[in-house]
């Protein structure tokens, strides 16, 4: 059976990182696991880039209009807390595509451009 080819990835490390890692028995495995854990924890909106597209920013702004960041009383990390009532949850601004004149984020129905 043929083994899958593995690629080699290298990166620069400063002296303090090298010192911190010197006693790790299998640094390659440690780095692989750290990268996989970081990818698993990446922001689902920007995929870990830290940069949002215009549309993503608009969606985030809509979300943040009815949500706040609050400290969790158990673990003390920040979390989103929804401030909407069940009635206001059904009202949301859709993403309008002016070229196609349609809504693209919910049901794909024809509509006029929303007024702002």
Distance between the termini: 62 Å
Overall mean pLDDT: 78
Structural class: alpha+beta
Give the helix level as a range of percent: 25-40%
Number of strands: 4
Which series of helices and strands comes N to C?
Answer: HHHEEHEE
Percentage of β-strand residues: 5-15%
The whole-angstrom Rg is 22 Å
Please count the helical segments. Answer: 4
The largest sheet, given as strand count, sense and whether it forms a barrel, is:
2 strands, antiparallel
Q: What is the topology, as strand order, of the major beta sheet?
A: 1-2
Residue windows where pLDDT falls under 50 for at least 5 positions: 101-116
What does this structure look like?
The structure is a single chain. This protein is of the alpha+beta class. The protein has a domain at 13-42. 32% of the residues lie in helices and 12% in strands. It has four helices and four strands. The strands form two sheets. The protein has a two-stranded antiparallel ribbon. It has a two-stranded antiparallel sheet with strand order 3-4. β1 (67-71) and β2 (78-82) form a beta hairpin. The chain is elongated and about 55 Å long. The N and C termini lie far apart (62 Å).
Mind sketching the topology for me?
Elements: H1 15-21, H2 27-40, H3 54-65, E1 67-71, E2 78-82, H4 86-89, E3 96-97, E4 102-103
Antiparallel strand pairs: 1-2, 3-4
